[in-house]
Queue: 2 jobs
Job 1
Amino acid sequence: MYNRAMPTKSELEAQLQTAIRDGDDMHKRTLRMVLSEWKLAEVERGEELDEAAAISLIQKQAKARREAIADAEQAGRPDIVESSQAELTYLETFLPQPLSQSELEQMARASIEETGASEPSQMGLVMKDLMPRTEGRADGKQASEVVRNLLSSD
């Protein structure tokens, strides 16, 4: 996994051309889905995606693969699990390194301190401050769990 700036649409298109030329079906399929969503998002917005929107788009694609893996495991379809896992692993190469649990807790504590929150009913205020700080490196479910635990224990 590499941690550099999010690839641009043109870089993804170049990777797609390489995958087509090399006959790499998994990369070709994954890149086509990402580029299709990317172009749709640009049409809906009426402008090019910025890096945050592009990361969000790829996170959405990764989440869809995780859900497909869970569904395929329940259905007893190891072929789909394997395919979706390969796509997920590839998508994760485009995403920033996720925050560790301790890093997320530190950021949550800082947000709690800055917002002055002291009880679970103020969780929304903390989340509003915290999520932009995570820059796509933690999902909302994980962050809300940490915030809830910290506010409940104080």
Job 2
Amino acid sequence: MEIILKKDIENLGHENDLVTVKNGYGRNFLIPKGFAILATASVKKMHDENIRQRAHKEEKLKNDAIALAAQLENKKLKISAKASTTGKIFGSVGNIQLAEAIAKKGFQIDKKSISIEGDTVKEVGTYTAVIKLHKEVKVEIEFKVVSE
């Protein structure tokens, strides 16, 4: 079954992508939840026209994301957390704290677009996070967790 995605779906595709899925997944989950629409001949024709019209806007968004990635690439972040004498953090540091630290530097990044290896940080040290600014633009940012 061919469908057109209305939203980005992890491990399936991005918004406005034409993808093929199994019938049950499409009819019972994606379409009723509003994540996709059935790709009939007329819908495909309208979809192609919309894609053509949106190409210019997408290029501008991609260029903005590339410029933001260039600014973020050289930034070093420092996140302080309460920790024991052995370096173990009380709680954890996740993408929420990282988004707040980036916001303090003057950049508004959605916490959902930040991914940290292992999802959470539980010890003091230096780590790397990946920020997805656009479907084609990702930037790695280094951050250091220190004890308060």
